[in-house]
Specification:
Pfam families: Iso_dh (PF00180). The protein is α/β, with parallel strands linked by helices and about 375 residues long. It contains twelve helices and 14 strands. The longest helix has 19 residues. Bound molecules: nicotinamide-adenine-dinucleotide (NAD). The site of nicotinamide-adenine-dinucleotide has 21 residues, from loops.
C-alpha cells in the first residue's frame, strides 16, 4: 500500500488513446493492491506547441523531475500546426532525455505464445523468447550533433581542399560505459541472470574500451553469466536463436538497429513497451520515462484501431522499475496474456477466429483481468 505520483504526457495522435487505457489498467492495479496513484497530466508534442508555444514547457519538465515516474504516449504526426517552422514535436523527447539524463533505454521482447504466428519468424524459433535490450541512449555517434557543438565531438559536413567530407564522432567515456553496464547487470539479476555485451571490438577503439569496462563490471556480478558478442553476429543470432538471449547491452547506434530488429520478433508495433531510466533516484527506485515504442500513428488516430497493449505494458515496466512494484507489474503482464489467450485482438493483430475489439474495449478487458 503506497502513494505514488506519475506525470502523464499523452501527446498526439493515438498517444492519448493508448495512454488512457494504460491509466485504466493502473487504476485496476491501485484498486487490487490498495495503492494510490496521483496523475499529473500535461501537454507534450504538437498539443503543447499549439497551447504553450513549445514541445514541452519548463513547468512540465519540472513536474516530471518531481514525480516518481513519467508515462508518455507519442508525439508528432501532424504538419498543419501553428509554429511548425520554429518548433518540432520531437524536441520534447530530446528535452526530456537530456534534461533528466535518461541514459538507459530498456526494450523487452517477449512474444506471447498465442501470437507467435503474427511474427515473420517461424514459431518454433520464437517459442520461449524472452529478452531485454539495454541500449545506451545519451552517448556515442548520435550525440555529436548537439547544438552548440560539443568540444571534441565534431559532427558536420565540411569543405576541405580535397573536396567535401563529413564527420561524426563516436565517443564514450569509461563512466558512461560503466553506468549502462551496471543497469544491465542489475536488471539481469531480476531475470534469467545472463548478460550479452554487444560491441565491435575487432574494429572500434570505443568497443575495445567498452569490452574492458564490461569485463571489470562483470567480475562484480559473479552470479550473472556473461558473454561478449560482435554486433554482426548478434544481428544474426537474434533471428536464428533468439531464445539464447536474456539481457543484451550495447551502445547507442548498435542498440538503435538491434532493437528495431528485435521488435519484429513480437509481430506488431502495438505490443512493444519501453523504459528510459535516468540517474535520478526517487523514494521508490529510479526515475524513468515509459512509452510504447510506436509513434503517433496518424493513419489510425481517432478510429479506435490502436492497440493499447504497448502502452499498458509500458505501465507495467513503470511499476517494476520506478516504483519497485514487481508483483503488480507481473499482474499486468498476466492480464495481457490472458486477454490475448481468450482470443481478443485489436485490428493490427487480426487473424482467423479472433474477436476484434477496439482500443477502449481492449483496455477494459485487460483492466477486468487484473481485477479477477
Ligand atoms: N516516441 C515517439 O513519440 C515517436 C516514435 C516514433 C515515431 N514518432 C512520430 O510518429 C509519427 C508517425 O510515425 P510513423 O508512422 O513512422 O510510425 P508509427 O509507429 O506511428 O506507425 C507505423 C505504423 O504502425 C502502426 N501502428 C503504430 N502503433 C500502433 C498501435 N499501437 N496499434 C496499431 N497499429 C499501430 C501505424 O498505424 C502505422 O501504420 C511521426 O511524426 C513520427 O515522427 C514518434
Amino acid at each position: 500500500m503506497g502513494n505514488y505520483t506519475i506525470t502523464v504526457l499523452p501527446g498526439d495522435g493515438i498517444g492519448p488513446e493508448v495512454t488512457e487505457q494504460a491509466i485504466l489498467v493502473l487504476d485496476a492495479i491501485a484498486s487490487r493492491y490498495q495503492h494510490t496513484f496521483t496523475y499529473h497530466k500535461r501537454l507534450v508534442g504538437v498539443a503543447a506547441i499549439e497551447a504553450e508555444g513549445e514541445a514541452i514547457s519548463d513547468e512540465s519538465l519540472a513536474l516530471c523531475r518531481q514525480s516518481d515516474a513519467i508515462l508518455f504516449g507519442a508525439v508528432g504526426g501532424r504538419s498543419d500546426y501553428a509554429g511548425r517552422d520554429k518548433v518540432k514535436p520531437e524536441q520534447a523527447l530530446f528535452k526530456l532525455r537530456k534534461g533528466l539524463q535518461f541514459f538507459a533505454n530498456l526494450r523487452p521482447v517477449k512474444p506471447l505464445k498465442n501470437l507467435l504466428s503474427a511474427s515473420s519468424i517461424k514459431p518454433e524459433i520464437l517459442q520461449g523468447t524472452d529478452l531485454l535490450v539495454v541500449r545506451e541512449l545519451t552517448g556515442g555517434l548520435y550525440y555529436g550533433h548537439l547544438e552548440p557543438p560539443v568540444p571534441g565531438k565534431p559532427s558536420e559536413i565540411r569543405q576541405t581542399e580535397h573536396g567535401t567530407e563529413a564527420i561524426d564522432t563516436l565517443l564514450y567515456t569509461e563512466a558512461e560505459i560503466e553506468r549502462i553496464l551496471r543497469v544491465a547487470f542489475e536488471v539481469a539479476r531480476d531475470r534469467q541472470k545472463k548478460v550479452t555485451s554487444v560491441d565491435k571490438a575487432n574494429v572500434l577503439s570505443s568497443s575495445v574500451l567498452w569490452r574492458q569496462v564490461a569485463n571489470r563490471v562483470a567480475a562484480e556480478y559473479p552470479d550473472v553469466a556473461f558473454e561478449h558478442l560482435l554486433v554482426d553476429a548478434c544481428a544474426m543470432h537474434l533471428i536464428r536463436k533468439p531464445t539464447s538471449f536474456d539481457v543484451i547491452v550495447t551502445e547507442n547506434l548498435f542498440g538503435d538497429i538491434l532493437t528495431d530488429e528485435a521488435s519484429m520478433l513480437a509481430g506488431s508495433m502495438g505490443m512493444l513497451p519501453s523504459a528510459s531510466l535516468g540517474t535520478q533516484k526517487t523514494a521508490h527506485g529510479r526515475l524513468g520515462l515509459y512509452e510504447p515504442i510506436h509513434g503517433s500513428a496518424p493513419d489510425i488516430a481517432g478510429q479506435g484501431k490502436a492497440n493499447p497493449i504497448a502502452a499498458i505494458l509500458s505501465a507495467a515496466m513503470l511499476l517494476h522499475y520506478s516504483l519497485g512494484l514487481k508483483d503488480e507489474a507481473f499482474a499486468i503482464e498476466a492480464a495481457v496474456a490472458k486477454t490475448i489467450e481468450e482470443g481478443y485482438r485489436t485490428e493490427d493483430l487480426r487473424e482467423a477466429g479472433a474477436t476484434i475489439i477496439n482500443t477502449q474495449q481492449m483496455g477494459q478487458k485487460i483492466a477486468a483481468a487484473v481485477l479477477k
